[in-house]
Amino acid sequence: MTTDVINPSTGQVLTSVPSLGVAETDAAIERAARAFPDWRAVAPGDRARLLRRFAAVVDEHIDELADLEVRNAGHTIGNARWEAGNVRDVLNYYAGAPERLIGKQIPVAGGLDVTFHEPLGVVGIIVPWNFPMPIAGWGFVPALAAGNTVVLKPAELTPLTAIRLGELALEAGIPEGVFQIVPGKGSIVGQRFVTHPAVRKVCFTGSTDVGKSIMAGCADQVKRVTLELGGKSANIVFADADLEKAAAGAPGSVFDNAGQDCCARSRLLVQESVYDKFLALLEPAVSSFRVLDPSDAAAEMGPLISAGHRETVASYVDGADVAFRGSAPDGDGWWFPPTVLLARSTDDRHWREEVFGPVLSVLPFSDEEDAIRLANDTEYGLSGSLWTRDLGRALRVSRAVETGALSVNSHSSVRYWTPFGGMKQSGLGRELGPDALLGFTDVKNVFISM
Ligand code: TAP
């Protein structure tokens, strides 16, 4: 079977790719299981060298990978180059890991006690369509560095860069069977990762509902699981903040990647004493946000991923209080203008649910306590920002907001050398940084009697 791959900027078919069934998925998992003993036995220095070589090969193909992502996912060319570069950087970062996976020596009576970080075996990675390259890399790179073998399922909508990365791995000398791309449906290929006993861990990024079903399915075999799920992150602006700076960055913090970002700051909380002033600063920043053909170097935002997703996003705007909107191209492709909505109350659907589109909901707050209460009034807890010049308040609010990552006076969320992941229903476990590596190992404790 094959699946057509569509360009979301034009609605045209780009190409078609294989869509694997259960038997083909099983064959890939079994190849990965056979490759595992040799891969874990590769000397740490040699595994490090192979990962660095893979990084170099990715670096030689940045333009090609970026161009594929512009056409397959509608990402702006600037973002797509960053994303391909992120895979290279993550490979270089974790290439330092095989030689540093150091256990402990623990004092005991009558002998020696040492711990080892043992690889798990085959790791199954399920990737969504919103950031196909970085999310793939955040899973497969630390998994390989820790000595596991990997089967990776890209989203059906966006398989092209993952398939290319699989080819580049072989070109770089990663042995056959160690890193395989298994394109196909989540309900078939992804589900098989959950049920196949040789898969020892599943890393899933995507919707909260599918994440819950994967976690429940993994319980049957006590399979390890990492989940990166949705978000409804708050952008909290206090009256004493640098309002110009906060307003200039706010559109990018939610409309980047057309809002299809689990870290999108989709709830804007503004202290009521500066509410009108802040919205007046925000309006020109939104209306000048450049929604263009994503291959245009000036583009800040491209189309949504699919016609169906555009309908879903539009359903949040219908009947809501629109404060102001930007513009988007007419014609073919799944375009949607950046849109700012005024929340009537915290019960508004657009305030509560993850829209996953270029829609920002705004609400005023009275004081610090009110801001924290509103920010935490959600089952999600992935990312967020707060803007203030008061250091004490920055620390108090940072500690009180229930979220896995938070930026003060900044809209950034992800640095590959620091941990990333969700609190509450935004996820389980951490990606990136030193924490992710240990998630791909089990600790073994060995006592040797004297
Ligand atoms: P999901 O259905 O969760 O898809 C994410 C990945 O999981 C895809 O590779 C998908 O495969 C696979 N999958 C689907 N059902 C599965 C199952 N039963 N077992 C194993 N794998 C399965 O997300 P979506 O439908 O693409 O998007 C829906 C909403 O999810 C979005 O609107 C957004 O709110 C949220 N979302 C969040 C994120 C992040 S980063 N947290 C990313 C994407 C979407 P297919 O290729 O067959 O779809």
UniProtKB/TrEMBL annotation:
The keyword Oxidoreductase appears for this protein: yes
CDD domains noted in UniProt: ALDH
InterPro entries: Ald_DH/histidinol_DH, Ald_DH_C, Ald_DH_CS_CYS, Ald_DH_CS_GLU, Ald_DH_N, Aldehyde_DH_dom
Gene3D superfamilies, alphabetized: Aldehyde Dehydrogenase, Chain A, domain 1, Aldehyde Dehydrogenase, Chain A, domain 2
Catalytic residues (positions): 228
Alphabetical UniProt keywords: Oxidoreductase
Superkingdom of origin: Bacteria
Domain Aldehyde dehydrogenase: 3-446
GO molecular function, a single term: oxidoreductase activity, acting on the aldehyde or oxo group of donors, NAD or NADP as acceptor
Family: Belongs to the aldehyde dehydrogenase family.
PANTHER family given in the database record: ALDEHYDE DEHYDROGENASE-RELATED
Protein name: Phenylacetaldehyde dehydrogenase
Organism, as annotated: Paractinoplanes toevensis
Gene: feaB
